[in-house]
Amino acid sequence: MAEIDRMLQANEEWARRFPGSKPVRPARRVAVVACMDSRMPLFGMLGLEIGDAHVIRNAGGVITEDTIRSLTISQHVLDTREIVLVHHTECGLMATDDVSFADLVEQATGRRPPWAARAFTDVDDDVRESMRLIRESPYLLSHDVRGTVYDVGTGLLREVA
Amino acid sequence: MAEIDRMLQANEEWARRFPGSKPVRPARRVAVVACMDSRMPLFGMLGLEIGDAHVIRNAGGVITEDTIRSLTISQHVLDTREIVLVHHTECGLMATDDVSFADLVEQATGRRPPWAARAFTDVDDDVRESMRLIRESPYLLSHDVRGTVYDVGTGLLREVA
Questions:
Q1: B43 in helix, strand or coil?
Q2: What is the pLDDT of residues B79-110, one digit of tens each?
Q3: Are A75 and A135 in contact (CB under 8 A)?
Q4: Which of A15, A107, B33, B72 fits B139 for a cystine, CB–CB 3.0-4.6 Å?
Q5: CATH architecture classification, B26-160
Q6: Contact A93, A67 (CB under 8 A)
Q7: A7/B155 CB distance under 8 A
């Protein structure tokens, strides 16, 4: 069975227990920016309820033009004001570097990507760099950002100073 | 209390019940691309367990260069092969359009964003457009993509043909 068919089946059970709709504006006025890593169920990890927060995720949880687009919509259209970053230990982007990754893709597909993987070596430094990029964005209404690292081995979240 | 402090507090409870670590490679070899909407707890909605799937989210769940970057890393570095798209009803991006949004940001910040909001009017069409963009990407190893729309009023997921 394709994974999507398993998901559609599981969703039938979810819909039977569905607690009801919520407003489109996040109740806690916060947007979370996190890595796509499969070991981070953000609602459970952060104590979020349905309707509480926007959740933006990509490889690494890094700040790209698309992250800024999403945060700008989150703030201007849907009234969020806080931003929380969630990077994590043992990230796949710490196991490669931008040149090796471009080589890998070129060897497999014959095409070298014109964009960088955004690999990094120190997760705390990458959180600080992400905070810097958010503070410098001229499109946001609020630059209230704090960053964290999630330990995928213990489940503990730690703030980065 | 800042929202992040509430999250750090809730996380202490999560870590006490933490079920243990999982491998970095997603067990079900699937990447989900979804909207950032606060009403979509994807793990619960789709029956996902920790370690099952990559989760990529942005405003609209649209396919941008950053979405392709994340999917390319997901497939080449971490071995996923299926892609599942999750758009939803009552999306904030159906309540605006690209010109009105740029006007709004320019009025509030004095700066007009050089990127588009990626607003849309028909959610099924936008899912089909996203599937088309994924099928056309030269960097992916697998173009096995299927798309869905989640009803935020009923909790039901529906596949888009």
A1: helix
A2: 999 999 999 999 999 989 999 999 999 999 99
A3: no
A4: B72
A5: 3-Layer(aba) Sandwich (3.40)
A6: no
A7: no
CA distance B64 to B75: 17
Cβ–Cβ below 8 Å for A6 and B47: yes
The mean pLDDT value for A82-98 works out to 95
Q: pLDDT tens, B107-158?
A: 999 999 999 999 999 999 999 999 999 999 999 999 999 999 999 999 999 9
User: Two tokens at A105?
Assistant: 């893709």
C-beta of residue A134 within 8 angstroms of C-beta of residue A83? yes
ipTM comes to: 0.98
Query: For residues A112 and A121, what is the distance between their CA atoms, to the nearest angstrom?
Result: 22
Q: What is the 3-state secondary structure (H, E, C) of A69-104?
A: HHHHHHHHCCCCCEEEEEEECCCHHHCCCHHHHHHH
pLDDT digits (tens, 9 = 90+) for B34-44: 999 999 999 99
Residues 6+ apart with CB under 8 A from B153: A21, B89, B90
A55 — contact with chain B (CB < 8 Å)? yes
Residues in A closer than 8 angstroms to B118, CB to CB, are 69
List the domain boundaries for chain A: 26-160
